[in-house]
Design brief:
Length: 209
């Protein structure tokens, strides 16, 4: 019985999606649950204030239909910033918009693309410093859905996958902060992008032990 399975990992999901048009965040929530995680979803700053961040084994910042290249109310990303600036050492994964917020909070640059991307394409690792893409070299297929791109990573981060569109993957092992521009929760032809989530959860488990 799936309902009686032991939950081995506590994951805080920062939900940046607009409920009426959410596509990828529900997928992300379901994938994390299927990985036997106890997932707590926070949609607002008040939600984040109500939880103990250090009680989680990992934190995931979801994607969104919002664009950082367009002026946003501070409240739109305050919940993400609170989590990212928390001084704990909980591993954190930013997905699509979540990665862009991560880059911005730590001093990187995010810019609008010439046109919005909605397609599947190949991701190629450009550095051996990656731990997030372990076992995925030399390349794999992933689904992209975004109108902005990270054009400059923050100090201390490594761009471990690049494309003409911008940064596909960035990692900071010291801070335990990781970001992917694509949606690993979205099934693709070869199905390997999902390993990003498995690799992240292994990082969470290693940090926990």
């Amino acid at each position: 019985n799936y309902a009686t399975k032991k939950r081995v990992m506590r994951i805080l999901l920062i939900d940046n999606a607009k409920p009426e048009i959410a596509i990828y965040t529900p997928m992300l929530y379901n994938v994390l649950q299927c990985c036997e995680c106890d997932v707590v979803s926070c949609k607002t700053k008040s939600d984040v204030e109500s939880v103990v961040l250090d009680a989680f084994d990992g934190i995931v910042l979801s994607g969104s239909s919002m664009n950082l290249s367009v002026p946003l109310r501070v409240s739109s990303i305050s919940k993400d910033a609170m989590v990212l600036l928390h001084k704990g050492d909980t591993p954190t994964l930013g997905v699509c918009f979540g990665m862009q917020v991560m880059a911005t909070v730590y001093g990187g640059d995010v810019e609008a693309m010439n046109e919005r991307v909605e397609r599947q394409r190949t991701v190629t690792a450009s550095s051996e410093l990656t731990v997030l893409m372990e076992g995925l070299a030399p390349d794999f297929s992933a689904h992209f859905s975004h109108g902005d791109a990270v054009t400059r990573i923050p100090l201390g981060f490594h761009a471990t996958a690049l494309s003409p569109e911008g940064v596909d993957v960035m990692e900071n092992h010291a801070l335990k902060k990781y970001g992917v521009q694509f949606h690993p929760e979205k099934p693709t032809g070869d199905g390997r992008a999902m390993n990003i989530i498995h690799n992240f959860l292994r990082l969470c488990a290693a940090n926990k032990s």
